[in-house]
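Wed. Picked up where I left off yesterday with citrate synthase (unknown stereospecificity). The coffee machine is broken again, so keeping this brief.
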Amino acid sequence: MTDKKPFAWETAIAWKNKDRIVVRGYDVNELTGNISFAEHFHLVLKGELPTPEVGRMTDAIMVNMAEHAMSPSSATVRFATSGGAELNSAVAAGVAGIGRLHGTADRPAELFLKVAARAEAEGIADTEAAAKVVAEMRAVKERMPGFHHAQHIRDPRTVRLMELSDKLGVTGRYVTIARAMEDATEAVFGRRIWINGPGAMGCIGLDMGYEPAQLKALFIVCRSLSLCAHSIEEMTREKGWRASSNSHMVQPLDLSMQGPDNYDGPSDRTLG
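Structure written out below (tokens, as returned):
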């Protein structure tokens, strides 16, 4: 048998010993106090420090997407906390609630990449490919990730993110594709379907050089701040279980909402 070296995690991300911690070649103490967390995010995930423009845009996205009041992930973290879960477990439950329909910056990014690939494959302009893809998705009633928001209709986060992307010179091919798709919705849907926050994050992120999975990571990192806050507030402000009839409002697990009036299964029956 060929001799093998002892097991070790092989990684290009970081190393440490008794005296030092080195991240992507930089001593962590040199980084500390000299770069922002957004710049550090870029370094850890992509291996290099970002340009000033990309660093600032990354920071802007993190601020913009960190908090969104009650959403699937924040509601999940609150329910987990109300059941007595520790902070880390409750936040993990909230992160698990970030799925295909919530916090999906990676999915619109994949859609914009698909449009770009379509344009190259067919030798057509990005705007034409964008219009084709919108029409085809509409024809089969396929959801367009990154467009429309059920609560906002026109997502207020998008305008600011796109404005900053233009101002910082980040805007490139993928923001242009996203805008072309939004323009195309008017003819296809008979109304404008606006780019939402995750959609803006997706196209801007691609223009900054992030990959779809890295954009998913960016959303998870910034939204985890919110999930921590919601969990801590739930454990310090509310009673456990969210079912107390003594509360000033009806609680989501109150027995009044679990009786026969809200049941539509089989009527009472017996085994005999």
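Quick read: The CA atoms of residues 13 and 24 lie 5 Å apart.
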